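Quick one, probably user error.
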């Protein structure tokens, strides 16, 4: 077995999930920079064929011999690519146009709760009290970021149709995570490539629909750069790392890392968008990292 640096990274779920959440956090910044540069469904849909083109040179022999597996599990692969990739992305971008940033952050923060609960129901996974404590700390960190350090503002939150989209998106991605435990026996890159092909096919109606309602516009140069970045990191690398992390530590423990996204997103906004650093940023980071560490101490029982 190889013990080189790449092999060590590939077997380190903590590092893989940190890189995953960092990539997803950067996508929040990219999405904000994309306003007026590329339409939402073009960004959500076209990144999948771009990701396929990017991964093709690295597939090597991974696709060889996978034909029978793909034919046997085509429906599973189709549903995974359609739900976890296409529908989740589309609902995320659509919700962003109909709800507030605080609602978006609060409702996405329940994704780990959905994931852990589904894992408990489907796989009868155990949830020791210390694991629940860690989960609660990561949720508190996400809420601290969403409310900008003022939890009392939650009393003023109102909900709308965009919030329903986010809850559905969270349920979809939690289901996707749980279903990864049943992935067919094929290499990770080949698995991602096939799901991305199905995501490409199912994204076409979304792009056409955006064109029909007059919302589609061709990307500017900046829009193309954002699309390429989104395809390379939040789409390709993050999803491959996420699938591998679920394989290493399971959906429950992987789900805990999800609430790093709003925290790292806030940190990136400070660094890249010159937003002011506040005490609650540091408190949220300590909470989410502490929560993950505490929950991980129960890994022998989860």
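Nope, works fine. Designed sequence:
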């Amino acid at each position: 077995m190889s013990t080189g640096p790449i092999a060590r990274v590939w077997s380190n779920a903590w590092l893989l999930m940190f890189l995953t959440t960092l990539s997803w956090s950067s996508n929040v910044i990219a999405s904000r920079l994309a306003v007026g540069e590329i339409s939402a469904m073009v960004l959500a849909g076209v990144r999948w064929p771009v990701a396929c083109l990017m991964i093709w040179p690295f597939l090597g022999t991974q696709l060889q011999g996978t034909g029978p597996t793909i034919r046997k599990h085509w429906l599973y692969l189709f549903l995974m690519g359609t739900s976890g990739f296409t529908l989740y992305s589309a609902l995320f971008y659509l919700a962003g146009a109909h709800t507030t940033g605080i609602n978006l952050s609060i409702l996405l923060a329940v994704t780990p709760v959905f994931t852990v609960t589904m894992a408990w129901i489907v796989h009868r996974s155990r949830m020791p009290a210390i694991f629940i404590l860690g989960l609660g700390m990561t949720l508190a960190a996400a809420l601290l970021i969403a409310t900008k350090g003022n939890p009392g503002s939650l009393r003023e939150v109102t909900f709308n149709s965009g919030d329903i989209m986010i809850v559905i998106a969270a349920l979809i991605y939690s289901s996707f995570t749980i279903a990864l435990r049943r992935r067919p026996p094929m290499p990770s890159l080949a698995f991602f490539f096939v799901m991305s092909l199905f995501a490409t096919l199912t994204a076409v109606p979304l792009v056409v629909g955006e064109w029909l309602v007059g919302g589609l516009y061709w990307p500017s140069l900046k829009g193309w750069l954002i699309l390429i970045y989104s395809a390379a990191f939040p789409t390709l690398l993050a999803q491959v790392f996420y699938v591998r992390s679920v394989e290493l530590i399971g959906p429950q423990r992987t789900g805990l890392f999800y609430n790093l996204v709003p925290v790292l997103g806030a940190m990136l906004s400070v660094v890249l968008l010159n937003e002011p650093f506040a005490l609650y940023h540091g408190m949220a980071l300590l909470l989410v990292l502490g929560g993950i560490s505490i929950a991980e101490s129960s890994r022998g029982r989860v």
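Residues 30 and 226 are 6 Å apart (CA to CA).
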